[in-house]
Specification:
13 helices; about 375 residues; 13 strands; alpha+beta; elongated; three-stranded antiparallel sheet
Length: about 375
């Protein structure tokens, strides 16, 4: 077993002192040579595990669809066979069994989506199945200090919301033992939205606005990160001078609000996942900007000239103008968009789309004559 699969030993063998165990078999799929998906042998479970991966490009969507049909038709499909022994008494194995109602003497049924092994904050998603092969829970787990920080932040935020906000999943159970930190939420069926911006997006983001509470932008957690990252930036200096003391209604902020972090059930119910960048006291507008701009960059691969038109079209849309008025930033939406772009470029520093976001920031600041003196 290669070194990048040692997380299996760390999760499922505990201290390694117990000799009672059971063998499980996965079909291992790699991406760029690294473990990506560990699919169960049972076809229904394998197809459901693919739902953990939400591709956005047409090519990736087609590849996933072909793989799903191959699994369902029991035709040969790619990947290598991986056999591994779980220990019955490993604490994390017992935790997984408790989620699915499995007997202590039975192996928990699960599939795994592995996070980026190159990231110090690598997390894993485990989809757990009951005895009838139905998905019942998704477990997010980390083994590193940075991963723990992200898990703790998301767990704390979801716990504080506790089902009070539309589209936010509840936590079923939590787990902490040694180097393993995890929490479980229900499994939500469905797919990423295709026309969300024209349908449920305005309603959802409006529902997250706290119309009873205002706060100066300079006191908001995400705004406070800007001077730490780019205090000398002329665009930030202009924005901070114009907007820092301006009061806006706070809102629940997701922080990575994109189609691939949203599930729409067959009944049309919306659930937003992956809240590790979330803030209870968030900046209104930033999630809407993120959805439009990151989709245009990472999915549609728009060049800077087209991205500029996408950004300005969003600001001109009636639904966005209504939202801006309700939140209290009508009249300086351009500046607020630039503050969002600065945050992405200087604070988040994404591994994908960072160059395109930086170019858009530069072009919009030039067009709108902000930070030029």
């Amino acid at each position: 077993m290669d070194a990048e699969l040692n997380f299996l030993t760390r999760l499922f063998r505990g201290d390694g002192q117990s000799s009672r165990g059971f063998n499980i078999t996965f079909r291992l799929l790699r991406r760029a040579g690294r473990p990506f998906l560990l699919l169960p042998r049972e076809p229904h479970e394998a197809a459901a595990t693919l739902a953990l991966y939400a591709p956005q490009t047409a090519r990736a969507q087609s590849a996933r669809a072909v793989l799903r049909w191959a699994i369902r038709l029991s035709t040969p499909w790619p990947g290598e066979i991986l056999r591994f022994e779980m220990l019955l008494q490993a604490p994390f194995v017992r935790f997984l069994s408790s989620l699915t109602g499995c007997a202590a003497s039975q192996s928990p049924r699960l599939g795994i989506l592995a996070g980026n092994p190159a990231s110090p904050g690598q997390r894993f998603l485990l989809l757990c199945f009951d005895a009838a092969h139905q998905p019942v829970a998704v477990v997010k787990v980390a083994l590193t200090q940075r991963g723990h920080e992200l898990i703790q932040h998301e767990q704390s935020l979801l716990g504080a919301i506790a089902g009070r906000s539309k589209g936010v999943p509840p936590i079923i159970e939590t787990f902490h033992s040694g180097e393993i930190l995890a929490f479980a939420i229900p499994f939500f069926p469905g797919n990423s939205p295709r026309d969300f911006a024209q349908g449920q997006l305005p309603s959802l983001l409006n529902s997250w606005v706290d119309t009873q509470h205002t706060l100066p932008l300079s006191e908001q957690p995400n705004w406070r990160k800007l001077p730490q990252a780019c205090a000398a930036n002329p665009v930030f200096q202009t924005l901070d001078r114009k907007l820092g003391k301006h009061q806006v209604h706070t809102c629940l902020e997701h922080g990575d609000f994109t189609p691939w972090n949203i599930k729409i059930s067959p009944e049309g119910i919306c659930t937003v996942l992956d809240w590790e960048r979330g803030e209870l006291t968030g900046i209104p507008g930033w999630d809407w900007f993120h959805y439009a701009i990151q989709t245009a960059i990472l999915v549609k691969h728009q060049p800077t000239a087209t991205l500029t038109k996408t950004a300005e079209a969003l600001l001109a849309a009636d639904s966005f103008k209504t939202y801006a008025t309700r939140c209290g930033f009508a009249g300086f939406a351009r500046e607020l968009m630039l503050s969002y772009l600065l945050h992405v470029v200087e604070v988040i520093k994404p591994s994908e789309g960072g160059i395109e976001t930086s170019e858009l920031l530069t072009e919009l600041a030039r067009r709108w004559q902000i930070g030029s003196g």
